[in-house]
Amino acid sequence: MTFTLSRANAPIFGIDKDGNVNEWNEKTAEITGFSSKEALGKPLVSTFIVPKLQATVRNILDSALNGKETSNYELEFTTKSNEIRYLLGKITVEHIFNTMPQPNSAVLNFLISDYDS
Question: How many structural domains compose the chain?
Fold first, then answer.
């Protein structure tokens, strides 16, 4: 399944319970200019989201990590070349359990992607 996600023709990225990137497929790398090696382990919001939206995005991601999905949400990414990329999509929740029965990972699947406003 990891191969499928990495090669999907839509940007798919994920975060762990601490908000750090744990999935970053090839399409996300193409759109942002950051390779998966550069993105993995970095805090998604403070590293890649434009400053004016960071608090809102952080709240939405916290909700996702607690099981609430969000549809039709727009993110503004700062690319490696300091451009803005707008991604519109759905935040889905992937329940991965460790020793406690609480979700600790969210997959962000942006199927309608990369447009300029």
Answer: 1
Q: Whats the size of the chain, residue-wise?
A: 117
CATH number for the domain that contains residue 106 = 3.30.450.20
Close Cβ partners of 48 (under 8 Å, ≥ 6 residues apart):
21, 32, 34, 39, 42, 77, 78
Token code pair at residue 97: 């359990």
List the domain range (segments joined by +) for residue 77.
2-115
Stated pTM of the model: 0.78
- For residue range 30-51, what is the model confidence (pLDDT) as tens digits? 999 999 999 999 999 999 999 9
Residue in the block written with tokens 């497929």: 25
**C-alpha to C-alpha distance for 24 and 53, rounded to whole angstroms:** 20
